[in-house]
Fold D-inositol-3-phosphate glycosyltransferase.
Amino acid sequence: MDPSFGGPCQGIRNSTPELELLGCVNEIVCLDAPVAQYLDDEDLTVHALGQARGSWARHPDLIPWLRQNLSRFDVVIIHGLWQYASYAVTKVMRQLRGRSPSAKLPRVYVMPHGMLDPWFQNDPSRRVKAWRNWIYWKLIEHRTISNAESLLFTCQKELELARLPFRPYRPKQEINVGYGVANPPTESLSMKRAFAESCPHFIDQPYLLFLSRLHPKKGVDLLIQAYARWVKQETIGEKIPTLIIAGPTDSDYAHAMQRLAASHELLGEQNSPSREPRIIFSGMLQGDAKWGAFYGCEAFVLPSHQENFGIAIVEALACCKPVLISDQVNICTEIAQDGAGLVCPDTLDGTTALLNQWQAKSPEQRALMGQAAKDCFENHFRIKTAAKSLLDAISRDPKLNPSRA
């Protein structure tokens, strides 16, 4: 449930309260330290068994917990693949069926969250990981898929792409349940203050916002290089907006991106008004600071090489902010059709085109695009709609009335 790990855990936080309102009681078992600070304010029922160990995210207490507790539930949803949790659920279900074939056991569903996207197998920088995944699929993970009652997808494009990279691929059923976020909190002065405190080097002026993990698939390098090109085109009287890059900065990749920005002389110099930063790495923003960043930006930008859904994209739409995204974002079709943003290829030229096209928009066109962004959110990505769709999907068996998941 560590928020720095990205979308799936935030999706659980978004959907669970809505499922509860529909009468579906939820419990979450996760491999986090029970004393983790990010669990302190959780309103959800969370069983944190201890910090996961190693790249497989293993913990010795998970299988015993599952053996003791699985029979309490009507439905189990595995969020994500390739780690110990999916293996553990599949193993325990097989053991419980073997011991008592007539025992009441939950129906198991899998929500891949984009982890079956072919990009992960095709990207040249991931050749070793691609071979590892292929072997793991053949030995273990295909059983997770074939034994599940259904795979649950966040959008139609994710469902279709999941069919491409692996064989055998034999899910019993595939369901596009959709995905969404809650309505954002109302904009307030406290949000603006929180953002300013989290980003002390920022002077109040127009800015574009990148808010996501700093990871190679997010296209951060393309964005920095395209922005450097954009700044060189700056003319007197038409200042280029600042670029805020919001995400954890403690990884090797994040450090490399900071060096890349510095190599283009975009980080500025402290105590030098003439060399103010054009790019600011704010670190991870949460709570009021995050919403302050969304509400204050001109537009949200994310030139991903692969994006399953993009919770931050939808949060920006909900705040009436146009989104500048690549055509590798799985919900780009809905956004383009609704006029809620701009879409270009996930290349340096494509990302440069995104920025240039935004600059060419008049204030009136930008305002209309902002309203279209809000309409796009309301039409496609409301969490109430997605939660109802999810509950309908896991309730399709007339013998089942899931009250605990």
Q: What stands out?
A: DSSP finds 15 helices and twelve strands in the chain. The mean pLDDT is 93.
